[in-house]
Amino acid sequence: IAASQPGTDWHLRENGREHHTSKFSSKELIVRRGQAFVVTFNGAEQPEQNFTFIAETGPKPSKLTRTQATFGISSTVSKDSWSAVLQSTSSNSVSISISSPPNAVIGRYKLGVQSGSSSPTSLGTFVLLFNPWSSGDDVFMPSKAECEEYVLEEFGIIFAGNKNHISSFGWNFGQFQGDILDICLSMLDRSLSHRQDPVTDVSHRNDPKYLGRVLSAMVNANDDQGVVLGNWSGNYDGGKSPSSWTGSGEILQSWKKSGFRPVRYGQCWVFAAVLTTVLRCLGIPTRTITNFSSAHDADANLRVDEFYDASGNHLDRAADSIWNFHVWNESWFTRSDLGPSYNGWQILDATPQEESEGIYQCGPASRKAIKEGDVELDYDGPFVFAEVNADCMYWNYDTATGKKTLIFSQSTTIGQFISTKAVGRDDRVDVTSDYKYEEGSKKERDVFKKARKKLGLEDKFDPTAPTPREVEQKPDISGKFKVSGPLQVGKDLSLILVLENLQSDAKKVHINMTAWSTVYTRRPVHGIWKDSKSITLSPKEEKQFPIKIPYTEYQQQLTTDNTIQVTALCHVEGGIQVLVQRDITLDSPTIDIQVLGEAKVNKEVDVEVIFTNPIDAEVTNCVLLVEGSDLLRGILKIEVPPLKAGDVSSTKFKLTPFETGPKHLVVNFSCDKFANVKTFKMVNVVD
Length: 687
Hints:
Elements: H1 12-18, E1 29-32, E2 36-42, E3 51-57, E4 68-74, E5 83-89, E6 93-99, E7 107-115, E8 121-129, H2 144-152, E9 155-162, E10 165-172, H3 180-189, H4 192-196, H5 198-203, H6 208-218, E11 228-230, H7 248-257, E12 263-266, H8 268-282, E13 286-296, E14 303-308, E15 314-315, E16 321-333, E17 344-348, E18 365-366, H9 367-372, H10 381-389, E19 391-397, E20 404-410, E21 416-421, E22 428-430, H11 432-435, H12 442-454, H13 468-472, E23 477-483, E24 493-501, E25 507-518, E26 524-537, E27 542-549, H14 551-554, E28 563-572, E29 578-585, E30 591-596, E31 605-612, E32 622-627, E33 636-640, E34 648-655, E35 661-670, E36 677-685
Helix pairs in contact: 7-8
Catalytic activity: L-glutaminyl-[protein] + L-lysyl-[protein] = [protein]-L-lysyl-N(6)-5-L-glutamyl-[protein] + NH4(+)
Binding site for Ca(2+): 389, 391, 439, 444
Protein name: protein-glutamine gamma-glutamyltransferase
């Protein structure tokens, strides 16, 4: 597309500064709606009162669908329509200030001018985006610092791990780099809605609710050949392991370069990070949210069922699951469809979990509606409500007879430590109280009951109200796993099973223990270890049983998520079974980054990355990947020599930053024994 005709001056620098779009490195004008921009063109030989401008977008522009506007020169800016105000004229050119309405359709526009009855002259094209700095826009965000973070910031931190042990890693969103904006616009044109009815689709592109929902479908490959193909199997042959990505740019570029074939592979944080990039690029304030112990309630009964066999193996037979963590998005906009009390943060989820209206998309669900239990409101309230509120039911399943026996239920497990990155700082902020009232409070249970009622579940089995049989039968013993050593890949795993007899008579207990490697969704992948023992607990006695799983036993079985689930199913003679379990996330070794000297624009600076091999064996196939918006273009790949046991490697490389301000380097180190050891470093670039 020729972005401009000879003789059209789009005032890229001034308009970019005024419209907060100067981070785009484009030769084409990129502006935000509801705000004036200046353009200068040849043609002063005509009396300027005769000029008519035509701005149009989409395949069949029309006034009816608000994808075409014609407007003459007026003395003042119009609030709710396109308008042009004369700035200045010279002997051969005219400067005009053009304003779009705050609810204009976003996308690429053609701009033409006509004078008198002559045929229109094309002035070229420009791109119009959402405007969170403008009070008339649906995405208006009053705090400038929040606009900076949620629209202009290209670096993010994603929280992972599990509720006992929260970890984090950096991500390069890179929404202003290269041709990402064009890729985002082609995502819209490749959506199912656009293919089915392009004219109507484009006419809805003024609405952040609509675009958020469409893009939540387009980021996953299901249904529409979207951007990323999900894979939770633990086997990532034929693609890249989801943990190996460090930014969205490589993913979006690969999608485009392959002729829009889905990129292999993603898991929840990849879908959420790519959606963050796309929405920030288009001007919708967006952030990633991590929910720990996140429910995937497949049958909309606000209940998650898990099954264990008599040996204590976690059976992969339920559609429901409880993930160690799950990452989704929040975007900021108004909800004219629901009413002003539901404005603000809206939940979108691009991970393909359940279909909504026949395709894999989720949201926007108003966060306020989720907190208040208003699950009937659009869109996908029941699924999102369950992610943070479902009750858990743990069952013993007899594989021979198919008989299910309830072991116990819990109403406080799901939805903990809901986390996002702080504004302007590299810290974690806990937003759990924005999703639900305090766990265990009357208000929280009232909201849960209200949601059950709205879903027509109030007369069905309520998992939190015990049956008469359960009231009589309380467990005779309690148990827990305690960690008694470092939780690190390369070190033996040391735990203690603590069992306590709650009764005043002795209890005979048979314990079946298992350890499985899992993916972060707690799906079991490989058995690592099993053991069983029979013990007697004296009245009120507490006993401790040390457990040691050597690194050599789990090393081959570990998935790239470094997660292990340990289970003890205790069969108490004459009593009910007790299930003790713990999900363990092992830390990768650490890497350290040092910037050697001051980082200045367009000046080379040395960076050193240091890695110590923590295990008693040589590591080989070592590769370092480095990326960072405004610090380097694309991804730097460095092969590192093998490292003997205990060796320290120092890798140096040079950077030439091309923008000032606080920037972030994201580093990923991999070798045959450790996958995707990540860290990030803030680099303050000065003039």
